[in-house]
Automatic annotation (TrEMBL):
Lineage of origin: Bacteria, Bacillati, Actinomycetota, Actinomycetes, Mycobacteriales
Originating organism: Tomitella fengzijianii
SUPFAM superfamilies given in the database record: PRTase-like
This protein's name: ComF family protein
InterPro entries: ComF/GntX_DNA_util-trans, PRTase-like
Superkingdom of this protein's organism: Bacteria
Length: 237
């Protein structure tokens, strides 16, 4: 009876590897705790691209569990990995330290229909959680400041699965749009008595393949006067 009740509250298997009786197993946790690697997708987004690692193992398992199987609990370890990646990049001087610039995470645009089907946008969820996740370990110069869902996909963009680099670029051309209501939130927040610090805007996606989504998103943000400092992804293909 008690076990039955606990099953309702706790996931029956690890979202990373499927191990039974655990929410997120220790092996998958250590598999996600890696150093960010610089990647060069075929379509260059015009900002440095950093990945948490090859899109495989617990990384891939957690993303698929979250996006395809509605395992919302899988967002937490992915958010922790993202927060850790930001902390490491700040320490390495690739991103400004928190005392110099707050960070704004802009999640990759998704189609409204897909987000509805999935009970919310998974990448936006990861970005939001990452802003509240203090990174673990000695390298922890603070969490990023906020996530702003500033981009959306206009109707007409197809799911990019199975498309080549050129097809992806054509599929996305003109389809990524800025949400007007969110644009103002990308600017410095005025605090009385404090010189406003221009935030560092970082684009976040679950996986980078050709780079077409990141490139189009960076371009749309640049058109709106927003410079993207880096592209962070949880895995690269
Ligand atoms: Zn596992």
């Amino acid at each position: 009876m008690l076990a039955g009740l606990l099953d309702l509250a706790l996931p029956a298997e690890c979202a990373g590897c499927g191990a039974a009786g655990t929410g997120w197993c220790a092996r998958c946790a250590s598999g996600l705790a890696t150093e960010p690697v610089a990647v060069r997708p075929r379509v260059a987004p015009g900002a440095p691209v950093w990945s948490a690692g090859v899109f495989a193992g617990p990384r891939r398992g957690a993303v698929i569990a979250l996006k395809e199987h509605g395992r919302r609990d899988a967002a937490a370890p992915l958010a922790a990995a993202l927060a850790r990646m930001i902390a490491v990049l700040r320490q390495a001087g690739e991103l400004d330290p928190p005392e110099l610039a707050p960070l704004i995470l802009v999640p990759a645009p998704s189609r409204a229909s897909a987000a509805r089907r999935r009970g919310g946008d998974p990448v936006a969820r990861i970005a939001r959680l990452a802003t509240r996740t203090p990174p673990s370990g000695p390298a922890s110069p603070g969490a990023p400041d906020r996530a702003v869902q500033a981009l959306r996909l206009r109707a007409g963009a197809r799911d990019s699965v199975g498309l080549g680099a050129g097809e992806r670029q054509r599929n996305l051309a003109g389809r990524v749009a800025l949400r007007r209501s969110a644009a103002a939130r990308l600017e410095a927040v005025p605090v009385p008595g404090v010189v406003p610090r221009t935030p560092a805007v970082v684009f976040v996606d679950d996986v980078v393949t050709t780079g077409a989504t990141a490139a189009e998103s960076v371009r749309v943000l640049a058109d709106a006067g927003v410079t993207v400092r880096a592209v962070l992804v949880l895995g690269h293909a």
